[in-house]
Amino acid sequence: MKIGIVCYPTFGGSGVVATELGLELSKRGHEIHFITYNQPVRLELLSNNVHYHEVTVPEYPLFHYQPYELALSSKLVDMVKLHKIEILHVHYAIPHAYAAYMAQKMLQEDGIYVPIVTTLHGTDITLVGSHPFYKPAVTFSINKSDAVTAVSESLKEDTLRLFDIKNEINVVPNFIDLVKHNAHKLADCQRGMMAKDDEKIITHISNLRPVKRVQDVISIFYNIQKEIPAKLMFIGEGPDKEAVELRCQELGISDKVIFFGKSNEIDKILCFSDLFLLPSQTESFGLAALEAMASGVPVISSNTGGIPEVNIHGKSGFLSNVGDVEDMSKNALYILSDEDRLNIFKLNARKEAMKFGLQAIVPKYEAIYEETLAKSL
Known about the structure:
The chain is built from 13 helices and 13 strands.
């Protein structure tokens, strides 16, 4: 198949999943065309089966905000015609499904029908989409898609609750490259570079937005390090970073916290981690938790959204109510305070992550493509 993929080319979960999906599909013989405004961050290698087409938005003084949807729709039309793309897989209802529908209508004028598969990732539904200004556009985009998927049962339920959806929504969970995140295969996993032998390494990965509750991360770590020697690894950039750094100074733990910023070496950092913290206000799936688990890192998280579908309470880690820092701290210390117990949780985390291996999940997308194409003939 010739598949066009539209996504945000960022470090966020949807961009990562879309990119790695495309790369895996290319290995299975499909021709993949990424169509977006920048080359996706994890799109490291272009090949005969992997192509990138940049969407440029020309500056025009009439527009206060440049119309990306219009530029994207036009680019999709051009690329479908030029490369004979058979199906569009768009990640996010708005603006991507909305733009894809407009492209679909334009192409029909030339007798071309390209079906649209829309994957819902969370923010497009729970934050942006539920805003009264955007709700009609989101509802329209989902209902006009030829197939719709959501990354968790929780997100599917939220979508059906918030919108008047006529379309069927298939749950296809996010996935992980188990080989990439296998700590035993990382020969250069030199733990001593980050911490002393007696120190535990705690990790958090996010875009440091308020919804991630990064102040809770600091509070949990502060409680941990009072009982057990530990270091905290912060991966990511975002609006709350400055406040987090200030809080570390106030608590006197700045020397125990390392800020990596954005990183393409998450698997290397996770390979020497002992515990992962994800106390988010909400998560549609919890891809960061899955990446940690795939590296054999147990997870302390909130019990919101799709996280309980990934992190199994008492097995791969523990779940607590949003904001319950004391319970999260207690659970973290329970895991870290006994080496044998920690190793059991690490093994269980890896075992649970294996359910989400890309070899198990990617064929589900292929089946949806084939079914959708068959219906469009």
